[in-house]
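We were asked to recover a plausible sequence for a given structure. The inputs and outputs are reproduced exactly as logged, with field labels preserved.

PROBLEM: sequence recovery
POSITIONS: 418
GIVEN STRUCTURE:
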C-alpha cells in the first residue's frame, strides 16, 4: 500500500497543518458571532471561552496519514486501512465499545394506519424488541411513509426531547419532527425516543440497554450512553431496511444536539445510513475539540458523565493530545452524504468549529469525488451551501431543531438522492 513518509509527505503534512490553522479566514460575507452575544455569554460564564481571538492555535491530526505514518492516497486505501483505524480510535477514546453479548432482535408491528396524515401517508408503529440473557427492552419506532411514493427515502430522527415531539397520533405537532411537511415532499419520517434505549442520566449503567448487554465489568473503553443510543438507531435501521415502503438505500439518520452527536457516531459506524445530519451537535459532535470554544471536554464530561467512555476524560483540558478530532469523525461518513447544521445563537455548540470540522473532512471526501470543495469561511446566515455530498447551513436564532432546518435538509436530500 502507501509509501512510508518521505520528504514529500512531510511537506504535504506541513501544508495541511498550515491550512488547518491559518488558511481559514472570515471575510465580511461570511457569518461571525455577534459581538453583543459574545459579550453577554462571556459575562454569564467566565470559565467558558466565546471569544474567537482567544481560540488557541492548534494542529489537527491528518486524516490521511495512518498511525504508522503512511500516506493514504486512494479511496481503496482509506476504506481498507485508515477508516477502520480512525473508527477504532473513536471507539477507544471517545464513545466506547459495544459489548459482544449476543442478543436477539425481533420486530412486532403493533399498529398500521393506511390513512394517516389525512390519507397522504401510512403510519406503522413497530416494536423493536431486544432480548439477551432472559431480559428484554423495546424501542418504539414510528414510521410514516407517503402513500404517493412506492419506496420512499426516509429520515430517522433520534429524539432526545419529550416524546410529545414525535407524537405518532399527530394530535401534537412539533417542528422538531415535521411529518406532514416531509410527507408532502415525498419523504418518509421515522423516529424513536432515545430513553427507550438508555436513560439520559448517570445511573451506573444499570438500566436500559447497558443493564441488558453489559455482562462484563466495565473498563475505560466501555460504551457510554451516546454509543448506546447510536446502537439503538442501528436496531431501528435493521427494521427500516426490511420495510417494503422504504427505499433502503436512502435512509438518513438525523439528530439534534446530544441526538446530533449520536447521529454522527451512528452514521460513522453503520454504513447502511446513506445520509447523516447532525444538527447543532457541538462538543463531542460536530465541533472541533481543539478550539476549546463554548462547551469543552472537561465541561461535558463533568456535566454528562454517562455520555462518553471513561478514556475521554483523560483529555479534559488536554484536547491537543486527542489522537482524533471531529473532522475525522465526519470523514468516516465519506463518501456518503453529510449535512451539518448550526445556529447563530448557539455559541455553546461552536458553529464555526462545526463548519471547520466539515471543511477539514473534505480531503477524505475528495478521495471519492475530486470536485468537492467548500468555501474556506463560514457561510452567511441562513444560506445553504452544498458541494458533492456535503452541505451546511447556519440558521439565525436559538439552539433548536426547526422546520427551517428540516426544509434545508430536504433540499439537500432532493439534490443528493435524486
Ligand atoms: C447541553 C449540552 C450540550 C447539548 C445539549 C442538548 O446541556 O451541554 O452538549 O448536548 O445539552 O443536547 O440539548
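RECOVERED SEQUENCE:
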Amino acid at each position: 500500500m502507501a509509501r512510508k513518509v518521505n520528504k514529500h509527505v512531510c511537506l504535504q503534512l506541513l501544508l495541511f497543518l498550515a491550512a488547518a490553522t491559518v488558511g481559514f479566514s472570515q471575510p465580511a460575507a461570511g457569518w461571525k458571532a455577534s459581538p453583543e452575544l459574545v459579550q453577554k455569554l462571556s459575562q454569564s460564564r467566565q470559565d467558558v471561552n466565546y471569544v474567537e481571538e482567544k481560540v488557541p492555535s492548534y494542529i489537527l491530526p491528518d486524516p490521511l496519514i495512518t498511525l504508522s505514518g503512511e500516506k493514504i492516497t486512494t479511496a481503496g486505501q482509506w476504506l481498507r486501512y485508515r477508516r477502520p483505524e480512525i473508527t477504532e480510535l473513536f471507539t477507544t477514546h471517545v464513545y466506547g465499545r459495544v459489548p459482544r453479548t449476543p442478543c436477539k432482535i425481533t420486530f412486532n408491528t403493533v399498529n398500521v394506519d393506511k390513512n394517516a396524515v389525512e390519507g397522504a401517508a401510512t403510519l406503522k408503529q413497530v416494536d423493536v424488541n431486544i432480548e439477551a440473557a432472559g431480559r428484554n427492552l423495546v424501542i418504539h419506532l414510528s414510521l410514516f411513509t407517503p402513500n404517493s411514493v412506492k419506496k420512499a427515502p426516509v429520515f430517522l430522527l433520534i429524539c432526545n426531547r419529550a416524546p410529545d415531539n414525535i407524537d405518532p397520533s399527530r394530535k401534537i405537532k412539533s417542528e422538531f419532527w415535521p411529518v406532514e411537511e416531509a410527507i408532502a415532499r415525498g419523504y418518509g419520517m421515522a423516529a424513536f425516543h432515545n430513553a427507550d434505549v438508555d436513560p439520559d442520566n448517570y445511573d451506573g449503567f444499570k438500566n436500559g440497554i447497558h443493564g441488558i448487554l453489559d455482562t462484563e465489568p466495565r473498563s475505560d473503553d466501555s460504551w457510554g450512553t451516546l454509543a448506546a443510543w447510536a446502537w439503538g438507531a442501528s436496531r431501528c435501521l435493521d427494521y427500516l431496511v426490511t420495510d417494503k415502503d422504504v427505499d433502503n438505500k436512502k435512509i438518513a439518520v438525523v439528530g439534534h444536539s446530544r441526538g446530533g452527536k449520536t447521529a454522527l457516531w451512528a452514521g460513522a459506524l453503520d454504513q447502511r445510513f446513506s445520509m447523516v445530519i447532525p444538527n447543532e451537535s457541538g462538543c463531542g459532535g460536530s465541533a472541533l475539540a481543539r478550539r476549546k470554544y463554548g462547551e469543552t471536554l472537561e465541561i461535558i464530561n463533568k456535566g454528562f458523565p454517562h455520555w462518553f467512555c471513561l478514556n475521554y476524560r483523560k483529555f479534559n483540558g488536554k484536547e491537543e493530545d486527542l489522537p482524533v478530532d471531529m473532522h475525522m469523525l465526519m470523514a468516516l461518513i465519506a463518501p456518503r452524504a453529510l449535512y451539518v447544521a448550526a445556529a447563530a445563537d448557539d455559541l455553546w455548540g461552536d458553529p464555526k468549529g462545526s463548519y471547520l470540522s466539515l471543511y477539514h473532512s473534505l480531503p477524505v471526501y475528495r478521495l471519492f469525488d475530486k470536485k468537492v470543495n467548500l468555501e474556506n469561511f463560514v457561510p452567511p446566515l441562513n444560506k445553504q451551501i452544498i458541494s458533492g455530498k456535503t452541505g451546511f447551513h447556519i440558521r439565525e436564532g436559538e439552539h433548536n431543531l426547526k422546520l427551517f432546518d428540516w426544509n434545508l435538509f430536504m433540499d439537500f436530500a432532493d439534490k443528493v438522492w435524486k
